């Protein structure tokens, strides 16, 4: 584990030395690029089993293609465990036909890379009605962008408007947009590389993490779920009406500091938050983005109290050390609660099992 963590640290060092944040990690053994920094939008919603909702998101995938100009190379359906060339000629009708055939869960990946073992620069992961939260089916759709997509001011505004168009047109419970460590869309191929996510989170406070926040069984109330809390501060955040009731919308607006970049906007009975003019990595040791800090202070009362440590702990037990452990989950959730990085690092030092032993 220490050796892989060292490789992750070397990759991050190279990024910071060159200031090229689009630089992928190249795995010499597999000759793939399984890790890169991305910008990602993530939307959480109920009624994903309804055809009308699926059709709306298919339209949004078309809008995403138009916005980015991406030419997908590969697609995959988890249901059938197959990867194939993107069926461009018949799209989106072929996707809609597949969706209509499936009565249960529908999970589709779309990638601009030659194989799903590569972390995409552009990609979509659509998961309709695959998980349970308090006996209600909910779904997630993720849109992936290159790290530098918002460097262009016009693209940044278009990115924000794309995010807002989704929460405006579809009933969304929670939505987030921010930087993250991109990995292969196929979960089983991504697992070995999640130590890179861990390493990066000990360096940058502005990263989201690729955790489902899903209640994987209906056994206890101790498991994380959308019902129990929101994720964390991010560049863009949207909360639907149920969360505003718990948060107290008036209180949230009153807490808004006009001296920070944080801006709020009511949309579709919920509230859209923009923490800064552009997404921030928030390097530890540098002044913190005040908009992110202000948004964290608003969301803290309704934030999830814990994170799932693994998604498939039984079947992937041999990879368990790669995942966030309890102290790392606490680190991520609480990382904006302390305005002093020294105090944060003192409470949550890098775990021994991640350090390199010589």
Summarize the SSE layout with pairings.
Elements: H1 2-18, E1 25-27, E2 32-46, H2 51-68, E3 74-77, E4 82-85, H3 93-101, E5 106-111, E6 123-133, E7 136-146, H4 153-169, E8 174-182, H5 187-190, H6 194-201, E9 207-208, E10 236-239, H7 241-247, H8 249-255, E11 263-267, E12 270-274, H9 290-299, H10 326-334, H11 341-347
Parallel strand pairs: 8-9
Antiparallel strand pairs: 1-2, 2-7, 2-8, 3-4, 3-5, 5-6, 6-7, 8-10, 10-12, 11-12
Helix pairs in contact: 1-6, 2-3, 2-4
Feature tags:
single chain
> Quick one: overall form?
globular
Rg over alpha carbons? 19 Å
Succession of helices and strands: HEEHEEHEEEHEHHEEHHEEHHH
Q: Determine the strand fraction and express it as a percent band.
A: 15-25%
**CA(first)-CA(last) distance:** 12 Å
By secondary-structure content and strand pairing, the structural class works out as alpha+beta
**Main sheet makeup:** 12 strands, mixed
Please mark out the parts with pLDDT under 50 across 5 or more consecutive residues, or reply none. 214-224, 309-317
Number of DSSP-assigned strands:
12
Calculate the mean pLDDT score and round it: 83
Helix content bin: 25-40%
The total count of helices amounts to 11
Can you put this structure into words, describing what you see?
With 358 residues, the protein is an alpha+beta fold. The protein is 32% helix and 22% strand. Strands 1, 2, 3, 4, 5, 6, 7, 8, 9, 10, 11 and 12 form a twelve-stranded mixed sheet that branches. Strand 1 and strand 2 (32-46) form a beta hairpin. The chain is globular.
């Amino acid at each position: 584990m220490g050796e892989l963590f060292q490789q992750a640290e070397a990759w991050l060092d190279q990024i910071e030395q060159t200031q090229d944040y689009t630089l992928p990690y190249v795995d010499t053994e597999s000759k793939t690029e399984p890790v890169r920094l991305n910008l990602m939008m993530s939307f959480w919603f109920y009624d994903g089993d309804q055809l009308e909702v699926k059709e709306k998101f298919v339209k949004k995938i078309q809008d995403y293609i138009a916005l980015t100009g991406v030419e997908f190379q590969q697609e995959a359906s988890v249901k059938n465990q197959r990867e194939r060339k993107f069926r461009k000629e018949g799209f989106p009708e072929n996707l809609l036909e597949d969706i209509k055939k499936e009565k249960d869960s529908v999970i589709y990946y779309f990638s601009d890379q030659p194989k799903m073992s590569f972390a995409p620069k552009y990609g979509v992961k659509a998961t309709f009605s695959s998980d349970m939260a308090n006996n209600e089916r909910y779904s997630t759709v993720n849109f992936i962008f290159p790290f530098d997509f918002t460097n262009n001011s016009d693209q940044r505004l278009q990115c924000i408007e794309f995010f807002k168009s989704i929460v405006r047109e579809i009933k969304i419970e929670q939505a987030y947009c921010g930087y993250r460590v991109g990995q292969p869309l196929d979960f089983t191929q991504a697992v070995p590389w999640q130590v890179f996510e861990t390493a990066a989170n000990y360096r940058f406070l502005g990263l989201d993490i690729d955790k489902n926040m899903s209640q994987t069984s209906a056994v206890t109330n101790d498991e994380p779920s959308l019902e129990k809390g929101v994720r964390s501060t991010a560049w863009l955040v949207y909360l639907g009406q149920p969360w505003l009731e718990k948060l107290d919308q008036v209180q949230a607006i009153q807490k808004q500091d006009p001296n920070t970049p944080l801006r709020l906007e009511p949309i579709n009975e919920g509230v859209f938050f923009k923490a800064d003019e552009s997404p921030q990595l928030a390097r530890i040791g540098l002044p913190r983005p005040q908009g992110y800090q202000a948004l964290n202070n608003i969301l803290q009362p309704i934030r999830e109290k814990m994170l799932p440590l693994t998604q498939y702990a039984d079947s992937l037990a041999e990879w368990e050390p790669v995942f966030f452990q309890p102290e790392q989950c606490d680190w991520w959730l609480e990382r904006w609660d302390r305005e002093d990085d020294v105090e944060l690092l003192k409470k949550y030092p890098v775990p021994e099992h991640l350090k390199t032993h010589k």
